[in-house]
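Input:
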Amino acid sequence: MTHTMEIEDVAAERKILFMQLYQQAFPLVAKYVHRMGGTFEEVKDVFQDALVIYYEKLAASGVNLQYSERSYLLGIAKHLWAKKNKLNNRYTSLPDSLQGIAMEESAGQSSTEKLLELLHTSGQKCMELLRAFYYDKLPMHKIASLFKFSSERSATVQKYKCLEKVRDIVKEKSLTYEDFLE
Amino acid sequence: MRTSLNDIQKIDDYLLQYAGKADRALFEARLILQPALQENLLWQQKTYEIIKQYSRRQLKAEIESVHQLLFTEPEHIPFRRKILGIFLKK
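Output:
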């Protein structure tokens, strides 16, 4: 019971963050995309992708903001819009700070799909832990307390156990899904 | 930790670049000498990619639920009006 509640704290924090970013920046992005002839759906897609990129940047190294968050998000959104529409303007080259954060989904979708679903059903606990370490990049002490480990060391050991488990599933299933390694 | 977990840690340190120069060199030598380790490294790399994609999906679902709140809950009517206003402008 308590475990679930603790995880929800971090999720609740994220929810607040996204709520704020939506309220601050969505109108700006909507104005821009609308001016460019885009629909509401397109605004939504571009904005949500921009939020993911922003979040990943935040998790990786924090964002050193010269300008406000909404300007930053607008910049990302403009870049994504330009890419999507193959516009030849100054927004098509990815700023240095965002190098390596690509939104392209890799080829071989269906086997990845199957794998992701499998991991969601039979490996959820491990995936949650691995997400906290590798994606959200939460500090060690926070992960240890969130997941109710007695120490940071035992959290780390469990991380490696989960990594091993997931790696074995990935390996096993990949050898079954022929298109996986393309 | 058992050996297999130790190797996982070593691969992790190597791939995520936490290992120092000496450790890296040593590890690279091991990779050449132990094809099984090399293979595990490749699978582990793939695993990190899967973790990222999985996590992104979860994140996207969280974002979508915030979107839904903003575009359906009565308390956010002012926000929706603002957005509608943008789209009604020529």
